[in-house]
Design goal:
single chain, alpha+beta, five-stranded antiparallel sheet, 19 helices, disordered C terminus
Length: about 550
């Protein structure tokens, strides 16, 4: 938001931190006054200034003496800025990237200070401190960097200025980490008297709101008025945006939840706002997370998402083999077309009832097909999400509220029971409900296959077994049976003049569901039966008995 508003109000460089991209050479000044030219001094007043220059030939250039005597960093920066016009300008523009110091500061070299010579007899116009470090001048003064250079036995100090680069994300990573070590170790913004972190040390000097070189009172007044106007606009628009965002954030889940309940065609008396709000949050949160991931992947935030999607679409390349194309098309048509239609019709026939024995009466409901497809799409994808995240398993909720899941406890119990571990487990044929659950289940394998394909249009990642044989075709087969058998039975009864109603159709649907479930879960039911039989047998013959090893009697020879 600050980037967007800063670009509009032309205040980005004043408000937001940027990285140092490079340094540009501004010029050079000699260390000693005797090596300076007349252009390095201000001689515009009169001849007395020229005489004062002659008296300084054996001393250091006045700027360096002023910088050494000044301890305030801001005043040093003002001194450097006011003397930029006196520099010996380079013939060609020079740029350099610099090198990082161990504290994160970007410098021209590994030296953080320049030691100036001390004079035994200094003129009264110069202030020489008695401190041991009075002759050390830092190489970083605000946006300026100093570098020593020697040319023909003359020592010069080059003055470079930093060029701001890209914006630093705010807040930086770990900004709220208050662990041991402070900002320097945690990499966050420093608080109070803490030592600056590497991230904060690498920030370029921000552009000031007021131009310090402008001495005109009218100009300063105009600048202040413009700044006040911009800040007022920023605060006002931000307040409007925050208020709108809060209203949308509260009402949008409610509207989405009402729409989802409307797709399920619930009566108005059964629609409650708290339930609708919870359903809306469940739909909106994944969309927001996916949008945030796209925004992070693009180079320009949300504004770069359309360009990112356009590049992704342009990178599509058809596969040479028709087999992969057929696999993709069949799986998409079944999952997003036929299966939702069948599931929506089954939902309408069971919960709402149908007037025609054939299931669809286009004369009484022209939008029945579209409504069934919408309902089926919602239910099918909701069921797939529940299976992928194992939302209906006990282990999921145990791991949500405890440190260890039930699976670890069961693993420990089974490890202590060699007899149970020795039993041969039957192979998983895909009919078990557990085979559909989790990231390694049927739904998870299908999602991995389609995501790997969509990420870089890698056709080899499309798995026919995962998309068709294990997922789309079994679901289509079960839904087709559940829709065709009850409708065919109801249609047959109507032909033989047997009274037909929605209740009879619901009974046929329930019976078909029960028969189909038993038929597809024979192996699970067989294992359950064997486990129950084993428990009953152990309870009758082994519980309370003392078990002894069998030893045959020794038979004597006569």
């Amino acid at each position: 938001w600050l980037i967007f508003m800063g670009n509009i109000l032309k205040m980005t460089d004043q408000m937001l931190p940027r990285e140092v991209d490079e340094f540009v050479l501004q010029g050079a000044l000699p260390v000693f006054a005797k090596d300076a030219s007349i252009n390095n001094f201000d001689t515009s007043s009169d001849d007395k200034q020229a005489k004062a220059i002659d008296s300084l030939k054996d001393d250091m250039y006045p700027l360096w003496n002023d910088l050494l005597s000044e301890k305030d960093a801001l005043r040093r920066e003002d001194l450097m800025r006011s003397n930029i016009a006196r520099l010996n300008q380079p013939r060609t523009p020079l740029k350099t990237g610099g090198e990082f110091h161990r504290n994160g500061k970007l410098l021209l070299s590994s030296y953080t200070y320049i030691r100036f010579p001390s004079t035994a007899a200094a003129p009264k116009s110069f202030v020489i401190s008695s401190e041991t470090e009075s002759n050390l001048l830092p190489t970083a003064i605000g946006p300026y960097r100093l570098k020593q250079r020697k040319v023909r036995k003359k020592v010069f100090i080059e003055v470079w200025i930093e060029v701001a680069g890209k914006l630093i994300p705010r807040p930086p990573e770990g900004w709220d980490d208050l662990g041991v070590g402070g900002a320097e170790r945690q990499g966050r913004w420093a608080w109070g008297d803490e030592q600056l972190s590497e991230i904060e040390n690498s920030v370029a000097t921000r552009t000031p709101f007021f131009d310090k070189d402008d001495d005109s009172r009218l100009s300063k007044l105009c600048t202040s008025a413009m700044l006040l106007l911009k800040m007022t606009v920023l605060v006002l628009i931000s307040w409007i945006a925050i208020t709108a965002a809060i209203c949308i954030g509260i009402n949008m889940p409610l509207y989405v939840g009402h729409y989802a309940l409307g797709v399920l065609r619930l009566p108005p008396d059964c629609v409650h706002d708290p339930l609708a709000f919870a359903i809306g949050v469940g739909f909106i949160v994944p969309v927001v997370m996916f949008s945030a991931k796209l925004s992070t992947s693009s180079n320009n935030g949300l504004r770069g998402v359309p360009a990112l999607l356009l590049r992704w679409l342009r990178s599509f390349k058809p596969h040479q083999s028709r087999e992969k194309t057929k696999t993709l098309l069949f799986s998409l048509v079944l999952w997003f077309g036929i299966c939702p239609m069948l599931l929506g019709f089954l939902y309408r026939a069971f919960f709402l009832g149908v007037q025609s024995p054939y299931g669809i009466d286009i004369y009484t409901d022209k939008h029945a097909l579209l409504a069934d497809w919408t309902t089926g799409t919602l239910l099918l994808n909701l069921w797939a999400t529940i299976c992928y995240f194992r939302l209906l398993t006990i282990d999921f909720w145990i791991k949500m509220f405890t440190a260890e899941g039930r699976g670890n406890a069961n693993a420990g119990a089974n490890a202590n029971n060699p007899a149970r571990n020795a039993q041969v487990q039957p192979a998983n044929t895909g009919n078990d409900t557990d085979s559909w659950q989790g990231e390694d289940g049927i739904i998870g394998c299908s999602v991995k296959s389609i995501m790997a394909f969509a990420h870089g249009w890698e056709w080899d990642k499309l798995d026919r077994k995962a998309l068709l044989q294990d997922l789309s075709l079994p679901i289509f087969r079960h839904l087709a049976v559940l829709c065709f058998v009850p409708c065919a039975t109801a249609a047959f009864l109507s032909q033989v003049d047997v009274a037909n109603s929605s209740t009879i159709l619901r009974l046929f649907i329930l019976a078909t569901i029960l028969i189909d479930y038993v038929s597809s879960s024979k192996e699970s039911l067989q294992r359950w039966f064997e486990a129950a039989h084993k428990i009953a047998r152990d309870d009758r013959y082994l519980i309370g008995e003392i078990l002894q090893n069998y030893s045959p009697r020794s038979v004597g020879t006569s």
